[in-house]
Amino acid sequence: MEARGIENLYIYELKAIAPSDKFAVLLHQKENGKTEEIRIHYDLLHPMPKFQTPAPLRKSPLTAEGLGGQGEVNSETLQHKRYKNVFALGDSSPTGAPKTAATIRKQAPVVAENLIDSILELPPKIYTTAHLAAPC
Ligand SMILES: Cc1cc2nc3c(=O)[nH]c(=O)nc-3n(C[C@H](O)[C@H](O)[C@H](O)COP(=O)(O)OP(=O)(O)OC[C@H]3O[C@@H](n4cnc5c(N)ncnc54)[C@H](O)[C@@H]3O)c2cc1C
Hints:
- The chain is an alpha+beta fold.
- The protein has 2 helices and 3 strands, in the order E-E-E-H-H.
- A 3-stranded antiparallel beta sheet has the order 1-2-3, with no helix packed on it.
């Protein structure tokens, strides 16, 4: 990213856009917890919604403290730690793997097999997060 002159701005939230002036208004959370408002000029703007898991999961007992609303699953088997007949994959699974469709492509077959194995009372298979990248 640096070699290409791309600057990463983390913990910035898009608040408003002034298209006539080509300015984006961002809220930046500082280290002291306070929020400052800044304006950045843009040539091309590609906004996307703030990342969050679906409300039915985020507000359910399936998640736990510190998981940002993701399912409380084993990162290798994708099986829920407390509800053994529940699995989570994709953006709702805290595995440490990139949040991409490419990740899901590897996770989906494992979850399908582990669902069947859990019904048959067989031990779950292990999924690996190695060699995952976008695009899929
Ligand atoms: C801008 C952008 C670019 C990306 N580019 C790439 C890329 O190039 N390559 C790549 O591999 N990945 C890419 N990704 C990541 C990829 O899109 C996600 O990781 C993937 O879509 C996650 O899939 P998911 O099924 O876990 O969640 P989602 O795709 O978010 O699916 C969740 C679904 O649940 C539905 N839902 C929410 N609430 C409810 C409810 N109450 N009832 C019923 N349904 C509900 C939503 O409508 C949605 O359809 C990109 C993501 C973004 C935002």
